[in-house]
Specification:
2 strands; 18 helices; 449 residues; mainly alpha; disordered N terminus
């Protein structure tokens, strides 16, 4: 299983990652086409199977069929495998297989692992992958055991354990796929809106999966000594905590008279925390998304667009991109030439990268929204919500996914794929690989603002 990069060394690392995901999605789509994958025993249309495979591999959660009522156990297991591969990254999975078979991991593979895992340095990347594997196994197993205590009494031991495993993996990988269709198609976790154990366990798995493997490694090395963490970890943990707390407070006030109106006060607290976490970027919902207030919808779209941490199972522009843009705006307003955080100065080039990622995502969202609105008569807000959910690899929707035509579904497939490979990887993939002559142009000022 050792990936022979030398035979394909004419491909850039970003291209290898992109083509790897494409092959996995195609294989998954072909498996889901098979009659054995659907409860009806019929062949599934390839575009719909490809949409589902893309959503699973890109850990999004947007679906054209209810996962429980349409897919057989075989189809569900294919989806679950795609979710796990997509969450960990295909290079991580291949490396783990190589390590299991005791194959040597060369320099090229290590560089690919560095890029796909979000590690800033190549040294220690194999050790990081080993920790990722052990950490994933422990966290998903723990989540399975906790959820099993809630599912097994009502579903039976075997079925309850399977449901616990499926939702633990889906939550940790920030995928949003569920098999709760037995309680109603596309119901997600609304049946358990009064069960804080289920909601808070799923929320915890989402957060742990969304902070990133590099942050895990930092925590494993330095334990709870926050001052010893690297700047990346400090920013991720701080911004994540702020977004969760602020989002929960806003959702509590926005939705108390709308989607939370039938809940008790403790249930409103739990629902507010869950609703603040799941848009970044898991896709589960404990209340009907159509019942959210206009403010709640807008807040959800903002959180979906921001997403989780680089090198994690989450999507979006990432919390570090958001933090850099915010810190840059503050520094600019104060006429500071340097951007600082936690007594450290950020590299000047990181602001350009953050701006490029932000505008790339924004351009893709607006372009996709315009195209879908041009060919189908949906409300613009519903389409915008759908496109942000797709590129943010979230999976939340306002009920229009199943009504999308083939053209719109292809657009969402492309958005989900772009969101999974990441903004920086996508930008590097699109960039021309050529040397530019060093030439200083004359400087001239323009008016801004």
């Amino acid at each position: 299983m050792n990936l022979n990069i030398r035979k394909t060394n004419h491909l850039r690392y970003e291209q290898i990652i992109v083509f790897g995901y494409l092959l996995i999605i195609l294989a998954g789509g072909l498996l889901l086409c098979l009659p054995i994958a659907s409860r009806s025993g019929n062949w599934t249309p390839f575009l719909n199977a490809l949409f589902t495979a893309t959503s699973a591999t890109c850990v999004t959660g947007l679906v054209v069929y209810d996962t429980y009522t349409y897919w057989t156990l075989f189809g569900q297991l294919v989806i679950l495998c795609l979710v796990q591969i997509g969450g960990l990254g295909f290079m991580t999975v291949i490396t783990l297989l190589s390590m299991f078979l005791k194959r040597n991991i060369g320099l090229h593979e290590r560089k690919l692992l560095m890029l796909s895992s979000g590690s800033p340095v190549i040294s220690g990347v194999v050790r990081l992958i080993r920790r990722i594997a052990i950490g994933t196994l422990v966290i998903e197993a723990t989540g399975t055991l906790i959820l099993a205590t809630q599912f097994c009494p009502s579903m039976g031991f075997v079925n309850g354990l399977y449901n616990a495993l499926f939702h633990s993996v889906s939550a940790f990988c920030n995928a949003g796929f569920d098999i709760m269709g037995k309680f109603g198609a596309f119901s997600s976790l609304t049946t358990f809106q009064n069960n804080p154990v289920v909601l808070l366990t799923v929320a915890a798995l989402i957060v742990i999966g969304g902070i990133g493997f590099f942050v895990w490694n930092d925590i494993a090395i330095h334990k709870l000594h926050f001052r010893k963490y690297q700047l990346h970890s400090k920013l991720v943990l701080s911004v994540t905590a702020i977004l969760i707390v602020l989002g929960a407070i806003l959702f509590f006030f926005f939705e108390s008279g709308f989607s939370f109106k039938d809940l008790s006060f403790p249930e409103k607290i739990t629902a507010s925390i869950f609703q603040s976490i799941t848009p970044r970027t898991a896709g589960f919902n404990s209340v009907s998304m159509e019942a959210l207030s206009e403010s709640g919808h807008l807040l959800t779209m903002i959180l979906m667009f921001i997403g989780g941490s680089p090198g994690s199972t989450a999507g979006g522009i990432k919390v570090t991109t958001f933090a850099v843009l915010l810190l840059g705006a503050v520094a600019s307003s104060r006429h500071n030439s340097h951007i600082t955080a936690f007594k450290r100065r950020l590299d000047e080039g990181i602001v350009k990268q953050a701006s490029a990622i932000f505008f790339l995502y924004l351009t893709l969202v607006l372009t996709a929204t315009i195209l879908i609105c041009a060919v189908q008569s949906f409300e613009m807000e519903d389409v915008l919500f759908e496109t942000i959910s797709a590129i943010g690899t979230v999976g939340l929707n306002r009920g229009i996914t199943t009504a999308l035509n083939s053209f719109s579904r292809i657009i969402l497939i492309l958005l989900m794929f772009a969101g999974r490979v990441g903004g920086l990887t996508l930008a590097l993939l699109l960039a021309e690989n050529r040397n530019h002559a060093i030439l200083n142009r004359p400087v001239e000022k323009i008016l801004i603002g």
